[in-house]
Amino acid sequence: MRALLQRVRRASVTVDGQTRGAIEGGLLVYLGVAAGDTEVDARYLAEKTRSLRIFEDATGKMNRSLADTQGAVLAVSQFTLLADARKGRRPSYSRAAPAETARALYGYYIEEIRRLGLSCEAGVFQARMEVSSLNDGPVTILLDSSSPSF
Question: CA-CA distance, 105 to 99, in Å (whole number)?
Fold first, then answer.
Protein backbone atom coordinates (compact mmCIF):
# COMPACT_ATOMS: atom_id res chain seq x y z
CA MET A 1 0.00 0.00 0.00
CA ARG A 2 1.32 3.43 -0.88
CA ALA A 3 0.44 6.77 0.63
CA LEU A 4 1.63 10.06 -0.78
CA LEU A 5 1.39 12.68 1.97
CA GLN A 6 1.36 16.37 1.12
CA ARG A 7 1.45 18.93 3.90
CA VAL A 8 -1.23 21.47 3.01
CA ARG A 9 -2.68 24.71 4.27
CA ARG A 10 -5.97 23.66 2.71
CA ALA A 11 -7.29 20.99 0.36
CA SER A 12 -10.59 19.92 -1.11
CA VAL A 13 -12.02 17.28 -3.40
CA THR A 14 -14.95 17.85 -5.74
CA VAL A 15 -17.06 15.26 -7.57
CA ASP A 16 -19.59 16.35 -10.21
CA GLY A 17 -19.32 19.96 -9.07
CA GLN A 18 -20.00 19.16 -5.41
CA THR A 19 -17.37 19.45 -2.68
CA ARG A 20 -17.15 16.03 -1.04
CA GLY A 21 -14.35 16.77 1.42
CA ALA A 22 -12.32 19.78 2.52
CA ILE A 23 -9.74 20.53 5.22
CA GLU A 24 -7.96 23.59 6.57
CA GLY A 25 -4.42 22.58 7.46
CA GLY A 26 -3.06 19.07 7.68
CA LEU A 27 -2.31 16.35 5.17
CA LEU A 28 -3.68 15.55 1.75
CA VAL A 29 -3.16 11.80 1.45
CA TYR A 30 -3.32 9.99 -1.87
CA LEU A 31 -3.73 6.28 -1.13
CA GLY A 32 -3.02 3.40 -3.51
CA VAL A 33 -3.82 -0.20 -2.59
CA ALA A 34 -1.68 -2.98 -4.03
CA ALA A 35 -2.67 -6.58 -4.65
CA GLY A 36 -1.93 -8.53 -1.47
CA ASP A 37 -2.34 -5.57 0.89
CA THR A 38 -4.23 -6.17 4.13
CA GLU A 39 -5.62 -4.26 7.09
CA VAL A 40 -2.14 -4.50 8.63
CA ASP A 41 -0.81 -2.29 5.80
CA ALA A 42 -3.65 0.21 6.22
CA ARG A 43 -3.15 0.36 9.99
CA TYR A 44 0.60 0.88 9.55
CA LEU A 45 0.06 3.77 7.12
CA ALA A 46 -2.63 5.34 9.31
CA GLU A 47 -0.27 5.33 12.29
CA LYS A 48 2.57 6.77 10.17
CA THR A 49 0.21 9.45 8.86
CA ARG A 50 -0.69 10.40 12.43
CA SER A 51 2.81 10.34 13.93
CA LEU A 52 5.25 11.38 11.19
CA ARG A 53 7.00 14.53 12.40
CA ILE A 54 6.74 16.77 9.33
CA PHE A 55 5.20 19.92 10.83
CA GLU A 56 7.32 22.78 12.10
CA ASP A 57 7.78 23.63 15.75
CA ALA A 58 8.33 27.16 17.14
CA THR A 59 11.93 27.13 15.90
CA GLY A 60 11.00 26.14 12.34
CA LYS A 61 12.28 22.57 12.69
CA MET A 62 10.07 19.74 11.42
CA ASN A 63 9.47 18.24 14.83
CA ARG A 64 5.69 17.99 15.22
CA SER A 65 3.21 15.40 14.02
CA LEU A 66 -0.32 15.73 12.71
CA ALA A 67 -1.53 14.63 16.15
CA ASP A 68 0.52 17.42 17.75
CA THR A 69 -0.89 20.10 15.44
CA GLN A 70 -4.51 18.91 15.54
CA GLY A 71 -4.44 18.91 11.74
CA ALA A 72 -6.86 17.01 9.54
CA VAL A 73 -6.55 14.44 6.75
CA LEU A 74 -8.12 14.52 3.32
CA ALA A 75 -7.84 10.97 1.95
CA VAL A 76 -8.14 10.42 -1.80
CA SER A 77 -7.98 6.98 -3.41
CA GLN A 78 -5.47 6.85 -6.24
CA PHE A 79 -4.62 3.55 -7.89
CA THR A 80 -2.14 5.32 -10.18
CA LEU A 81 0.35 5.33 -7.27
CA LEU A 82 0.86 1.65 -8.20
CA ALA A 83 1.80 2.47 -11.80
CA ASP A 84 4.79 0.72 -13.32
CA ALA A 85 6.15 2.86 -16.14
CA ARG A 86 9.50 1.12 -16.59
CA LYS A 87 8.57 -0.43 -19.96
CA GLY A 88 6.95 1.21 -22.93
CA ARG A 89 4.91 4.39 -22.86
CA ARG A 90 1.74 3.22 -21.16
CA PRO A 91 1.93 2.55 -17.41
CA SER A 92 0.89 -0.86 -16.17
CA TYR A 93 -1.45 -1.06 -13.18
CA SER A 94 -1.14 -4.80 -12.68
CA ARG A 95 0.14 -4.26 -9.10
CA ALA A 96 -3.08 -2.49 -8.07
CA ALA A 97 -5.58 -4.42 -5.97
CA PRO A 98 -8.97 -5.37 -7.41
CA ALA A 99 -11.54 -2.59 -6.93
CA GLU A 100 -13.51 -4.24 -4.12
CA THR A 101 -10.38 -5.02 -2.11
CA ALA A 102 -9.06 -1.50 -2.66
CA ARG A 103 -12.42 0.04 -1.67
CA ALA A 104 -12.48 -1.93 1.59
CA LEU A 105 -8.89 -1.07 2.53
CA TYR A 106 -9.34 2.60 1.59
CA GLY A 107 -12.36 2.66 3.91
CA TYR A 108 -10.41 0.87 6.62
CA TYR A 109 -7.57 3.42 6.38
CA ILE A 110 -10.10 6.24 6.86
CA GLU A 111 -11.65 4.44 9.85
CA GLU A 112 -8.19 3.96 11.38
CA ILE A 113 -7.32 7.64 10.95
CA ARG A 114 -10.53 8.55 12.77
CA ARG A 115 -9.97 5.89 15.42
CA LEU A 116 -6.59 7.51 16.08
CA GLY A 117 -8.43 10.71 16.96
CA LEU A 118 -7.90 12.70 13.77
CA SER A 119 -10.46 14.47 11.65
CA CYS A 120 -10.66 12.84 8.23
CA GLU A 121 -12.47 13.90 5.08
CA ALA A 122 -12.48 11.70 1.99
CA GLY A 123 -12.90 11.60 -1.73
CA VAL A 124 -15.24 9.19 -3.51
CA PHE A 125 -13.77 5.81 -4.43
CA GLN A 126 -13.56 5.26 -8.23
CA ALA A 127 -15.04 8.67 -9.00
CA ARG A 128 -13.49 11.21 -11.30
CA MET A 129 -12.37 13.82 -8.80
CA GLU A 130 -10.97 17.33 -8.90
CA VAL A 131 -8.49 17.87 -6.10
CA SER A 132 -7.36 21.34 -5.06
CA SER A 133 -4.65 22.06 -2.56
CA LEU A 134 -2.34 24.74 -1.29
CA ASN A 135 0.87 22.90 -0.43
CA ASP A 136 2.76 24.00 2.64
CA GLY A 137 6.53 23.91 2.36
CA PRO A 138 6.20 22.09 0.05
CA VAL A 139 6.53 18.87 2.01
CA THR A 140 5.68 15.66 0.16
CA ILE A 141 6.46 12.20 1.57
CA LEU A 142 5.91 8.82 -0.09
CA LEU A 143 5.20 5.92 2.27
CA ASP A 144 5.12 2.30 1.13
CA SER A 145 3.99 -0.37 3.57
CA SER A 146 5.89 -3.08 1.67
CA SER A 147 9.25 -1.29 1.59
CA PRO A 148 11.95 -3.18 3.50
CA SER A 149 13.26 0.12 4.89
CA PHE A 150 10.06 0.56 6.92
Answer: 10
Is 68 inside any structural domain? yes
| Confidence class for position 147, pLDDT limits 50, 70, 90 | low
Domain holding 99, by residue range, is: 2-144
| Count of domains for the chain | 1
Catalytic choice (6, 49, 55, 79): 79
CATH assignment of the domain containing 114? 3.50.80.10
Annotated catalytic residue: which of 70, 80, 126, 140? 80
- Tens digits of residue pLDDT in 53-109: 999 999 999 999 999 999 999 999 999 999 999 999 999 999 999 999 999 999 999
99 belongs to a structural domain = yes
Task: Please indicate whether residue 70 is annotated as part of the active site.
Answer: no
CA distance 17 to 55: 32
Cα–Cα nearest to 66, from 29, 32, 109, 104: 29
Catalytic site residue 78? yes
55 is catalytic: no
Name the pTM for this structure.
Answer: 0.94
Q: Compute the distance between CA of residue 99 and CA of residue 94 in angstroms, rounded to an integer.
A: 12
Catalytic residue among 6, 49, 55, 78: 78
